[in-house]
């Protein structure tokens, strides 16, 4: 019996801290505040995330606001100009924002300390599209998290050819004071 308790205790100790809990609802916006990096983007209209595309933006930070809104600070590709977008909360993990059309997006999942995934629908006269984004606290994430994101893309009808690994392009890191 003592040996079983010892083994159980060792198992619990060894697994403690292994990976953070994945959250898919009841999000705490206060836990996603701070600096982030754009790691991967996927779109049903690839041209929106290619060089010069309106949605080829690189996140720097997410800041919760007092009225439950979120403020996103981004850099544009190419010119590396900084801008912010305020999004208003409409439900748990669901927000709306005006940027190159009307956008409704949701937090898909996060572990707060490593990554967050977003699903966005953009509506405008020229046509609608879906955008999926993977942000991370560090400039890159593990292969496991990338595979999880890519599986989510496929599940939502976005194929491999419409997923771009943003860690291989100029993400304006020098403009934000990094190498």
Automatic annotation (TrEMBL):
| Xref: SUPFAM superfamilies | Lipocalins
**Alphabetized Pfam families for the sequence:** Lipocalin (PF00061)
Tell me yes or no: is Secreted among this UniProt entry's keywords. yes
Signal peptide interval: 1-19
Specify the Lipocalin/cytosolic fatty-acid binding domain's residue ranges: 34-167
Gene Ontology MF, one: small molecule binding
Q: Does the keyword rRNA-binding apply?
A: no
Q: Where in the cell is it found?
A: Secreted
What are the entry keywords? Answer: Disulfide bond, Pheromone-binding, Secreted, Signal
Show the GO cellular component annotation of the record: extracellular space
Concerning its family, UniProt says: Belongs to the calycin superfamily. Lipocalin family.
Supply the name of the protein.
Lipocalin/cytosolic fatty-acid binding domain-containing protein
The organism that produces this protein has a lineage beginning with:
Eukaryota, Metazoa, Chordata, Craniata, Vertebrata
């Amino acid at each position: 019996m003592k040996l079983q308790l010892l083994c159980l205790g060792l198992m619990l100790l060894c697994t403690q801290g292994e990976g953070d809990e994945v959250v898919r609802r009841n999000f705490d916006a206060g836990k996603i505040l701070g600096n982030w990096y754009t790691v991967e983007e996927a779109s049903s209209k690839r041209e929106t995330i290619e060089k010069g595309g309106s949605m080829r933006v690189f996140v720097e930070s997410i800041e919760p606001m007092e009225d439950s809104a979120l403020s996103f600070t981004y850099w544009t590709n190419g010119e590396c100009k900084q801008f912010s977008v305020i999004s208003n909360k409409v439900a748990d993990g669901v927000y709306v924002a005006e940027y190159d059309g009307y956008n409704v997006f949701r937090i898909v999942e996060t572990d707060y300390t490593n990554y967050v995934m977003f699903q966005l629908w953009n509506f405008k006269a020229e046509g609608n599209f879906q955008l999926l984004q993977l942000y991370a606290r560090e400039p890159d994430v593990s292969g496991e998290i990338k595979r999880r994101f890519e599986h989510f893309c496929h599940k939502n009808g976005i194929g491999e050819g419409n997923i771009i690994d943003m860690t291989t392009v100029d993400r304006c890191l020098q403009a934000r004071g990094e190498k």
